[in-house]
Design goal:
The strands form 6 sheets. The protein has a 6-stranded antiparallel sheet, with no helix packed on it. It has a 5-stranded mixed barrel with strand order 5-8-6-7-11. It has a 4-stranded mixed sheet with strand order 12-14-16-17, covered by helices on one side. It has 3 domains: 266 residues, Spore Coat Polysaccharide Biosynthesis Protein SpsA, Chain A, CATH 3.90.550.10; 76 residues, no CATH class; 105 residues, Jelly Rolls (Sandwich), CATH 2.60.120. By secondary structure, the protein is an alpha/beta fold.
Length: 482
Amino acid sequence: MSKTIHPVLLCGGSGTRLWPLSRKSYPKQFVNLMGEESLFQASAKRLAGDGFAAPSVITGADFRFVVIEQLAALEIAPADILIEPSARNTAAAICAGALVLEAREPGALMLVAPSDHVIPDPARFRAAVEAAAPAAEAGQLVTFGIRPERAETGYGWLELSEAPDAEFSATPQPLKSFVEKPDLAKAEALLEGGMHLWNAGIFLFSTSAILDAFAKHAPETLAQAKAAVETAERDLAFTRLAPEPWAALDDISIDYAVMERANNLTVVPYGGAWSDLGDWQAVWREQDPDANGIVATGPATAIDCRDTLLHSTDSAQELVGIGLEGIIAVAMPDAVLVAHQDRAQDVKKAVAELKAKGAAQAETLPRDFRPWGWYESLVVGQRFQVKRIHVHPGAALSLQSHHHRAEHWIVVEGTAKVTIDDEVKLVTENQSVYIPLGAVHRMENPGKVPLTLIEVQTGSYLGEDDIIRYEDVYARGQGAKG
């Protein structure tokens, strides 16, 4: 490539259409949905190597340590991790990312990509980015259009100035117009006409070009984003954008705020496979259904079924489908989804219904991820709770105490370094320790293997906000969980 590309990964979506696997507490980009790596990790790897700088990531506070952990597993060190105080759509996120990158490297080429897309051919995609670079260096705002495979109503479309060649080469050309998500009849006409591509929401431009576009077409967004960046605070390895100016930003996409108003637009056709995994029907398509259209993942069995997805996540729970046709069935320990494939887009309505009636399953997974590892509740009673806790090697929980509960820890794997008031001791497998109510305590994993323990809590109140925090290597405040 003629100039280094700086990836900016958008990592703030909640993925409600993939409920119950994807939830607000742990959305789809972090889930190992299509293999051993998460969608976020696959995106980071795809945009790494020769010609690419270290990535910037824009995400929410709840996911900042997940981002660090998943990048570390790939041995990728991020250039920046920007923390959004709240979700404000892609215009705000891209503007903030451009401002930070411009301050670090004026005029840099910035590749904006969602972190939850599937692109099976990374080499072909990188070649398309390389083909787009000269146009971006010349001041064009470049978007990537996907060769359409069907009359899709869930995406916006891009109108070309000229038809792609037979090989669907990644040849830049002027973008004629954006098309809103069409109804089925219009989508069929767009597909048949051969002059439209799917809008993937992937962009390449220089920081100077996109900031000029914001100044011209969305000056209020630029002003508020600039204020949020200029008064941002450093927090460990993160940059926390200032909440007050951020709250004043419109919740608007980059397409509406800038792209549909700009006249320096270029589109690069991309002919390789692509999916945004926007719903369970898309997951079914991407997981190579067999001759009968069956995808069975995990402990799942299909008998006399057709065009059906069976997805089970728990080895102790068997999912069986008999005589099903066109069905999505997803089983997790705390929630089960059964829907017709034609209603895949409506799963978000179920999430809204569950949220309205106060069901924890609407947004929270049984396993709660923390900077130091994770925990899950095994049994919950009126005055007791049993948890399994997993602590990463070298990690430590905060030094803390509780007003309303005592705890009993039983180590089942690894070794724990336990502090209780003035006493520090090692607790190994098959050993246990008791933490009285009000005792100042901490748990650490000093070893090289994961630490697993069973925690039994007893008391009048067992909420995660019953915590007084004295020291915390993760710089969390009072009442923060874990």
